[in-house]
Amino acid sequence: MESNKSASWHFCIAPMLDWTDTHYRVLARLMTRNARLYTEMVTTGALLHGDVSRHLSFNAAEHPVALQLGGSDPSDLAAAAVLGAEWGYDEINLNVGCPSDRVQNGSFGACLMATPEVVAKGVRAMQASVDVPVTLKTRVGIDRSDSFEAFARFIDIVAGQGGCEVFIIHARKAWLDGLSPKENREIPPLRRDFVYRIQDAYPELTFVLNGKLETIPEMQAELARVPGGIMVGRAAYQHVDWLRFVDQMLFDHSAPIPTRSAVVQGYRAYMLQALESGTPMPPLLKPLLTLFNGLPGARAFRRHLSEQGPRRKTDIHVLDEALDLIPDLDALDSTELEWRCASPHAVPYAVVDQKIG
């Protein structure tokens, strides 16, 4: 197993539907060189019977980047994994955590926790087909099968029969009936203790903790307890700016903190290339919407992008005009105050520790 932080699962940004597309991942990479990035979940059917290029194209700057697959048939998973490896992904991840009705109807996602032998066969088939790591993202249980013993049995089978060595654990169970995907991210209680216990029970495996990690100090504390790594979800898009601190505070204290100006200018250059290739403006602007949350002018910035982007689909000046609504952008890059407020939900440069509503 890799031991170098930058080549491992030390800090990961979760696969999130409608958020972690290639544009978001390019923006994230401008802020952190070391984070491991994940695609939105792509079903095996979409790859084997759809537009492969649309689903798998990504920017070379995104590495290390993982492809997350949804599916359960071993042969389909193997074929989709081969496509992912051929397109250059650094990891193939299988989704065994999504509880949505649509995913359940396709017999994959969290419902697969009830059939660990099926998961093991899928993982084994993928591993036999590709040379890149094959990993699993799962929950700690489903419905009333939520004991630690049931969770440990699932891990034991998938590791023993499937050969899986890396498990990303969303430390909540999933209710397959009665809760929406959003509610399943919030209502079932966190059981981080399950991750601690399973790590102690299987020290030869790598476990990555996922679930309501919101501040860098909290992430540092969990990394001390779960050395395999952590994965951050909603906090990584609700206030994307804090990702600029990841390399210095979670990897290397001598790493520079990218300025907002540098991030914006790097992303603007990317936008120009994407616009020239035919990408419309709105999806390019979406990752920027939370970049200035909590700063003067942030609301006007978001409003301008949201209103003008759909109207002027090829005009890069939409971004330039929005940036003019943020006063003294360069002056906002004061390291001293940024360190004090290095938290996803802390308002940068506030006199008091304030939370974003």
Automatic annotation (TrEMBL):
EC assignment: 1.3.1.91
Xref: SUPFAM superfamilies: FMN-linked oxidoreductases (SSF51395)
Key words, A-Z: Flavoprotein, FMN, NADP, Nucleotide-binding, Oxidoreductase, RNA-binding, tRNA processing, tRNA-binding
Cofactor: FMN
Active site: C98
GO molecular function: flavin adenine dinucleotide binding; FMN binding; tRNA binding; tRNA-dihydrouridine20 synthase activity; tRNA-dihydrouridine20a synthase activity
UniProt binding sites for FMN: P15, M16, L17, Q68, K137, H170, G233, R234
Catalytic reactions on record: 5,6-dihydrouridine(20) in tRNA + NAD(+) = uridine(20) in tRNA + NADH + H(+); 5,6-dihydrouridine(20a) in tRNA + NADP(+) = uridine(20a) in tRNA + NADPH + H(+); 5,6-dihydrouridine(20a) in tRNA + NAD(+) = uridine(20a) in tRNA + NADH + H(+); 5,6-dihydrouridine(20) in tRNA + NADP(+) = uridine(20) in tRNA + NADPH + H(+)
Residues of the site described as Interacts with tRNA: N95, K182, R185, R299, R302
Gene3D superfamilies: 1.20.120.1460, Aldolase class I
PROSITE patterns listed in its UniProt record: UPF0034
Enzyme superclass (EC): oxidoreductase
Classification via InterPro entries: Aldolase_TIM, DUS-like_FMN-bd, DUS_fam, DusA, tRNA_hU_synthase_CS
Residue ranges occupied by any DUS-like FMN-binding domain in the UniProt entry: 13-316
UniProt similarity note: Belongs to the dus family.
Function: Catalyzes the synthesis of 5,6-dihydrouridine (D), a modified base found in the D-loop of most tRNAs, via the reduction of the C5-C6 double bond in target uridines. Specifically modifies U20 and U20a in tRNAs.
Protein name as it appears in the record: tRNA-dihydrouridine(20/20a) synthase
Gene (name only): dusA
